[in-house]
Every structure is written in C-alpha cells, then in structure tokens.
Design a protein that fits this description.
Elements: H1 2-18, H2 38-42, H3 49-59, E1 62-71, E2 74-83, E3 89-94, E4 96-99, E5 102-105, E6 111-115, E7 119-124, E8 142-146, E9 151-159, E10 162-163, E11 177-193, E12 198-205, E13 208-215, E14 223-238
Parallel strand pairs: 7-11, 10-14
Antiparallel strand pairs: 1-2, 2-9, 3-8, 3-11, 4-5, 6-7, 11-14, 12-13
Amino acid sequence: MVKTFLVFMILLATISCGVGASSPRKPHEELPRSTGTRSEIIGATPVSAKDSDDKKMDDANITIEATAGITDGKLVINYQIKSLSDREVYVWDQMIGYEGNEQVIDEDAAYVFLEEPDTLRIIRADLELPSGLDVARKEIPFVRQLPPKGKLTGSVKLSVPVKEFSPFFPELKPENGRSVKCSNVKLMVAWTPSQEGMKVSERKVGGTEVLALRGAWDGAYQNVAEQTIPLDVDVIAYKTEFERSSPKLF
C-alpha cells in the first residue's frame, strides 16, 4: 500500500512539472520574421536613390587619361578628360599667367608641389588657402565647359628641373631650393558638374576668351580627377617656409 502511494505521488509530480513547459519546435517551423529593413537590422544608414545618384555624380562620371615624358628639357604631360555624365561639367584647367602686368592664359602652367617622399604633384584646380596666411586677392583658375558625354584635351609643359610653384608664395630662388629626385608624377585636374547657384561669365584674358565660375552651390566645390604616372624627374623643392596646398574641395 505504501509502495503504491509513493509511485502515485511520483507520477503526479512528473505530470505537474510538464504543465506550462514550452513544447519543442517542429523540425521545419520557421523563426519569427523581422519586419525591419536590412539596414535597420544591422544598424547601417539607408542610402536613398538620390544619395546614390549624387555619389555617382561626384565620384564616377569623369575619367582622365594622361601620359608624361621628358622632351627637349621639359616635362610634358598630355591629358584627356572624358565625361560619362548627361550634365555639363566645368573643368578648372585654364591657368593664369602674366606678360608684364597683363594677365594672360598660360596653356603650359600648373601648380607644382613635392609630395614626400618621391612624387611630383601637378595641380590644375582652385587651391586651398594656406593656413595663417593673409591673401588680399586669391588667384582662381578659369574654367572650360565640358559638354555631356564630351572630351577635352590639355597639356602641361614645365622646364626641368621642375620647380615647386604656388600662387601664394614668392618665386623659388636657387638659394632657397633643394634638389629632389622624384620617380612619380601625379596629375590632378579639378571639375564641377553644372548646378543651381553657379554664376558663369565670359571673360577675355590676354586676348583669349574664357569662362569664370563663381557663386555658391550644394555639394562639393570641386571634384578631382587624378592619375599617377611612373617617371623619373629632377625637382627643386623649397627648403624655406612653404605650404604645399591641395585642391579646394568644400
């Protein structure tokens, strides 16, 4: 009788423990689905179609192809800029020069900087202002209009050894320079897609008709197309105070 009662109590306890316990999941039963997007699930920032298009406009619609060599004592860089865009683009490669006191367009010129340790940086763009330097009147290159799906060609010709050059500092004198042997030439040419807020005006500079681009607009002030070309070239760099500027992007 006692044994029967004990067996009955053990069986009753076993049944009570099973009440309310979770039942095992069926072998092919799916887990509950999330109602959020993938970007919400992983914590990423969603990218709208417009944002994506703007990025393509900034990064992917201009290509540059360039060659460089030493000819008759000059560094000669020839380049072609090609648009893959359906919008007009302005290319900042009309460099300012001087004949006496008269402003002219210098078809051979560029801004020149040493990029340590052994790269010669050749820039056609509107430059950032040097830090801590007061500039009464900033030099801004003129632009050319690149039509949709169009092409433009240009060239840079600089005497070798190539001297560093910035519009914000005095011309490099021999006593203020040091010799550097570079093994790469980096060409950087700025461009900006046509958009609201731009003020484009025709100018005549030294007998050459050019376009001046001013105003304020959304997004990048300039984008930069660049190519690095392996080439040995002798350079004269500043050993005195000198700031090596970059293109102005914003």
